[in-house]
Amino acid sequence: MDPQEMRPPLGPDSWRLVGVDIDGTLMHWGGEISDPVAEAVERARMCRNHVILATGRNIMGMLPVAERLGLRRGWAVCSNGAVTVRLNPRATGGYDIVEKVTFNPRAALELIREEMPDAFFAVEDLGVGFLVNREFPHGELVGRQRVASFDELCHDEATRVVIRAPGVDVDHFDDLVHRIGLNDVTYAVGYSAWLDLTPPGVTKASALEALRRQLGVYPDHTVAVGDGNNDISMLEWAGQSAAMGTAPDHVKAVADEVLGSVEEDGVLTLLDRLIDPERLAVM
């Protein structure tokens, strides 16, 4: 660590950066965020904490969550780090895109299509939805889906690509993506046979680190909480990290502590520690 960035005491005027996953962390699997969690997020923000949603969701999927939490200003990391937005109630749609990182998905999609010809493919259409080879099941993608040819899916630079293989065992899917060697992208396998591809080196951690530097937050004053494979990078990055009780064991292993389950609102344990009346800020 740069000696100039060594942690000073966390005084009443110091700010933290708090990266928070959405699904399985803030949000129950049924799609609800409880009132106590929403209220704790608001109180934490009032106590000099930059609470930043860090999610695999696209912008369209993140915005309703921000609204539920009363986040009208601040930042959010979407598409597993490929897209960073600044929430702005005066902007069209309520946000400005401040950073996006893209890649050409052709090589990865061709490798996966050869092994899984029946898989669903979706390429993010930023701020709109997805281009898909065929429509995904209802509720799996947020935003408009437009069916496109394989060549069209591969034509433009992409921020995120989703591959869905219904009926394929998760362990088999994980073994497959390692075997075919997806070397030119960053990827994360979800709880189901669901694969997210982002540009090389792009993760939630890389986007949060860029924001940390921009906001002038000391490295040890960073916090992260999550539950999935795509959260590992930010749990390893943060000065303090927590995994949800429902996270897989290998995710828990990289965190400093394990919270209760999402259905128990385990994230409240962490959020409540961030609330300190002596650190109140004018928002």
From TrEMBL:
Gene Ontology CC annotations of this record: cytosol
Record protein name field: HAD-superfamily hydrolase, subfamily IIB
Lineage: Bacteria, Bacillati, Actinomycetota, Actinomycetes, Micrococcales
Alphabetized SUPFAM superfamilies for the sequence: HAD-like (SSF56784)
InterPro entries the record matches: HAD-like_sf, HAD_sf
Keywords: Hydrolase
PANTHER family: HAD SUPERFAMILY HYDROLASE-LIKE, TYPE 3, PHOSPHOSERINE PHOSPHATASE
GO MF entries: magnesium ion binding; phosphatase activity
